[in-house]
Structure formats: C-alpha cells, structure tokens
Amino acid sequence: MDLVTRYIAAVQRELPENKREEIGRELKANIMDQLDALAEEHGEISDADIAVALKRMGRPRTVAQQFVPPQPLIRLSYMPIYQYTLFLVLGLLFLLQVAETTVTWLASESMGLIRYVLTLTVGFLDEAVFGFASVTLVFWLLSRQTDGSKPCQETDWHPEQLPDAGPGWQHISMEDIFTDLATYLFLLILIWYTVWMPPEQLDNVRFFISDQSHLFLKWVSPLAMFGLAAGLWQLKQRFWTRPMLMTNIALNLALVTATLALAASSPLLHSDVAQWQGVFSLEQLERNARIALVIIALYPAWEIGRDLFRLRRF
To answer: Which parts pass through the membrane (predicted)?
Structure first.
C-alpha cells in the first residue's frame, strides 16, 4: 500500500494546510473502497493493479482541485466591474499619452512622424503595464476578503429601465470610443498649439500646413470639440440610440465636408520644404496631401452610410 500512501501525500501537498488531514482521510477511504471492490472481483491485487487504479483517478493536483477548486485571481463577482475599470483606465492613459506625445512632437525639432508613433506606442505600453498591474492588484486585494459578503451586489437598478432588445451592433465598444476621443484630442492639440506653446518654442516649430489651412482648421475646430462631447456621451450610454445615431451622422457629414474643403484649399502645405529638397517637390507633396485627405474623408463617409442603414432598422 506504499503507492496509496505516496499518492495521498502528493494530493495533500496541493491542498491548503487546514484541510489536508480531513481530505486525506476521505480520499484514503475512497481509494480503499475501490481497491476492496477490485480485490473481490479479481482476487489478490498487485502493485501494478494499484498503480492502474490510481492512474485512473487522475493526477494528484487534479484530484486536489476536485476537493478544493482553485480560487481565481479576481473573484468572478468582481469580473464585470474589473473589466470595465481596466478598459476605462487604459483608455484614459491612452488619451493622456496622446496629449503628452503630441506636445513633445510639436515642441521638438528632430522628432519625425515615425518617431512620434514609436514614442506614443512605447509610452502607452509603459503606462498600460503600470495601469494593468495597479487595477489588478486592487481587485486582487478585494477578492481576498473573507467576510462572506457578496460584493458588487447592485440593488439600485430596476428591470423597467433596461433598454429595448436589439441587434449586437447597438453596443458601443470602448475601443471605438477611446480611438475617436484620442483622434479629436490629437487634432485639438495640433490646431491650437500656438495657444499653449511658449513663444521661444514657437520659433522652432515647423508646421507642415500653410497659414491659410491652419486658419481653416481653427474655424472648424468646434467639430473636434463636438466629437469629444459625443464620445463622452457614448462612453456614458454605451448603447446606440436614434438621437445618438442622428448626432453621429451630422458630425460625420460635417467632418467629410470640412476634410474635402481642406483638400480643395490652396496652398495646402507650408512653402518651407527645404528638408524635402531632392526627395519631393512642393507640387508632389500638395498632390499627395490632397489624396490623403480624400482617403481620410472616406472613413466618416462610410460611417454616414452605416448609421443611415442602422437608423432605418429602428
């Protein structure tokens, strides 16, 4: 019976210390009952027969988990609010990183577009790791509570207030919301850099669009502010409604109009393109910039068609 003793000891090592003796006795009784039944059926049993019976029961860790299921890192009752908090924190960190990197980009004389993207990515990943660890640690500590209470038990809601049942597209993902918020925040920082940037740094900024185009962007910047407000509304609602769809259609229609108007303006880019000499001419840059703006306008145009189709389905 040495195999049985070793098997029970292996199971006990996977158990909490205060439950090892009790579960060990119960497990030994179960094993002995199985071996007695096997002996009655086949007569005397050997160590090989015992090994086969123990192997049929499963690995010691698997058996231990049947008696004491492993506790998840985050208690299941906390998971919905944990996921929501985590996405919210990561989204806010992304917005802050976009603002910080954009300010650094405009104030720098050597940071190009590729370096901007790399700085934004590395900076966000660094902040995201800290944010993820902090949120997870908080909810892990909450999950270790042993007061027996039921956390996250919400009683301040009423079934009558639930939204109407609808298709899956009516749910607004937080990824889409924070992507839109980051885009509008980037545009506002880019347009109004002359307001918050110190005068000594303004002389070093080489803005790539012309003064006329920059003035046009200032006039249409309320669209970006309206987009931020719409994004915050979506973040609170998280569910497409008819008024929200109509608002999104109007916003995207204005964005398409403004983008195409900017593409048709002339001159579009700043005349100081000394850094591009020998690579691109000003005419080539103007043409490519207009093509890029037309391509950019296709996305809000697609959203207009999508939202009109959804609006018809209400």
So the answer is: 84-107, 113-142, 177-196, 216-233, 245-269
**DSSP character at residue 208:** S
Q: At what angle do helices 20-42 and 60-67 cross, to 10 degrees?
A: 120
Structure-token pair, residue 265: 């303006």
**What does the buried/exposed string (b/e) look like for 210-232 if buried means 16 or more CB atoms within 10 Å of the residue's CB?**
beebbebbeebbebbebbbebbe
Cβ atoms of residues 239 and 170 within 8 Å? yes
Query: What is the residue-wise DSSP string for 90-143?
Result: HHHHHHHHHHHHHHHHHH-SS--HHHHHHHHHHHHHHHHHHHHHHHHHHHHHHH
Q: Report helix, strand or coil for 269.
A: strand
Per the CB < 8 A criterion, the answer to whether 289 and 305 are in contact is: no
Per-residue pLDDT reduced to its tens digit, 259-298:
999 888 877 776 654 455 455 566 777 788 888 889 999 9
Note the pLDDT tens digit of each residue in 123-178: 999 999 999 999 898 888 888 775 444 544 555 656 666 666 667 778 888 888 88
pTM above 0.90, yes or no: no
Beta-bridged to residue 171, according to DSSP, are: 239
Return the sign of the alpha-carbon dihedral for residues 179, 185, 186, 188.
Answer: positive
Q: Which residue has the higher pLDDT, 285 or 255?
A: 255
